[in-house]
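Following up on my earlier thread - several people asked me to post the actual chain instead of describing it. Fair enough. Here it is, all 178 residues.
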Amino acid sequence: MKRIFQLFRNLYYKLALLCCGRAARNLAHRLFMDFMNQNNLRYRISNDKLFMDAWFEIFEGKRIQLHYDFNSDDSRIIIQSIFITIETSQIPQASLLISHLNTLLNQGKLMINFRNLNVYLELELNNAAITLNPSIIDSFHHKAISMPSDFLWCFQQVFDINEDPVVVIGQLLRKYEP
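Reply from S.P.:
Thanks for posting it. Predicted structure:
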């Protein structure tokens, strides 16, 4: 009888969280912070605890910056993986490569911040999904770090080797063929 009571109580809490956006946002934020602390990840958080930044080295001196926005609205967390800074002359090539890469993505989108000339991957994580399944944070965080390493390779091929963006996309697809 006690297990049935606990089951219904947990179900009630989950339904209440899904119906109340602010409670789901607060719980998702707390679960996200617990994940960062349990994995000993270094981060910087704003005074109002609505924005957070973390840096990760993906390979040999190349770092990406993850910018977390907990205040976008009551239903989601936005994560921006900033992985390359471009020059003004590189905007047309970068835009072409980004448009090709965005057609391949099933989650997230690549964009350019024209003010800072940064290219970043923007991913969204639903607060309700976090509250129902906190283990999703780990896989989502892994995507936010691993996907930009492939994109960085593509940008290096286009800018450093002067390869055509269409050829680079073909090489990327061949890289992941079964």
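The two ends are 50 Å apart (CA to CA). That should answer part of your original question.
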